[in-house]
Design a protein that fits this description.
9-stranded mixed β-sheet; alpha/beta; 31% helix; 4-stranded mixed β-sheet
Length: 326
């Protein structure tokens, strides 16, 4: 038999009452949380859009792209998706971020996309892209400071979206090697790249300063090859800064330079001949709009794209697909 003292009826009643109060408190707290959540969804809705950064568009143009988000719950708007919408609609924006500022504001930050590559789409029509191959605009000639890219063909291209050299989803080795070359060149401060050719991924090459053919071979160890190229060309330039030649990096961890006459380097000769036809005259740099001021959303702004020199180019180039050339 248990020796535990028996509780009195009054004590049992107090315990039951305390349990009921606790249960009621839990229920009330749950109801309060639900009520607050519902209130937040109902009352925390996008009313204001602010824009900061430096970009070649007006603030109202960026705001107008996101006008459809006004009135939506702050909790349900997908900020990454909205950033992608801005970059696709206004291609010269880059690094766009959209952040929530409760209770009713979306804050947009953007910068200007850098012109890096010019990939030929068809005869004398090039896709001007940033370093990530996002298509900025079609142009009839290659602007100064932009790297022409020769390839076996473009699978898909769309204004404001990355180009694709392959029709296989998630598998684009040509795009990968191109971005690797550019990134490695930036890291090594290896400038004056006149052309990159990725037509054959077993025989990738670039042309430096319009006079030195740099054979990279296959797509392996690109950062190391670019590092070797930089060191080797720096040494050769000390001896003769104007000489033509071929730098072979296709042998692992070796850089072999052979001076040569221009006529005996067909890749460089072909580049120089084509460059005269496709290079655009230098133009004044496009000014970007810089702002740190918050601008309230305007939904009735007439939006027009910034003027670009695309004479004789069909600018209705979005959502087009080409078959990759053999």
């Amino acid at each position: 038999m248990s020796n535990a003292p028996r509780r009195s009826k009054a004590e049992i009643a107090r315990i039951r009452k305390r349990r009921k109060l606790i249960a009621a408190g839990v229920i009330l707290a749950f109801i309060a949380v639900i009520a607050l959540s519902v209130s937040a969804f109902v009352f925390c809705r996008v009313e204001t859009i602010t824009v900061k950064g430096e970009f070649p568009y007006t603030q109202d143009e960026i705001i107008n792209v996101l006008a459809a988000s006004r009135g939506r719950s702050m909790f349900t708007v997908d900020t990454e998706e909205l950033a992608d919408v801005v970059e696709a609609a206004l291609p010269y924006t880059d690094g766009v971020t959209v952040a929530r500022k409760f209770p009713k504001t979306l804050s947009v930050n953007a910068k200007t996309a850098k012109k890096v590559f010019a990939v030929e789409l068809s005869a004398k029509i090039f896709a001007l892209t940033n370093e990530n191959l996002k298509m900025l605009e079609p142009v009839p000639a290659v602007p100064s400071g932009v790297i022409p890219v020769e390839c076996s063909g473009i699978a898909t291209y769309e204004l404001g979206k990355p180009l694709s050299f392959s029709s296989k989803a998630g598998d684009d080795p040509a795009k990968k090697v191109l971005t690797e070359i550019y990134t490695a060149a930036q890291n090594e401060e290896f400038g004056d790249i006149s052309l990159i050719n990725i037509s054959d991924l077993n025989s990738v090459y670039l042309i430096h300063d319009g006079r030195i053919l740099v054979r990279l071979g296959d797509t392996g160890n690109i950062p190391n090859k670019i590092s070797l190229a930089k060191k080797s060309i720096d040494e050769e330039n000390k001896l003769s800064p104007a000489q033509y030649g071929v730098l072979d990096l296709s042998i692992k961890k070796k850089a072999v330079f052979a001076p040569d006459d221009l006529k005996d380097i067909p890749e460089v000769t072909a580049y120089l001949e084509k460059a005269e036809e496709i290079t655009a005259p230098e133009e004044p740099a496009q000014e970007a709009t810089a702002t740190d001021a918050d601008t309230e959303s305007v939904t009735d702004t007439d939006v027009s794209a910034p003027a670009q020199d695309t004479a004789a180019v069909d600018t209705t180039i979005t959502n087009q697909t080409q078959n990759t050339a053999a």
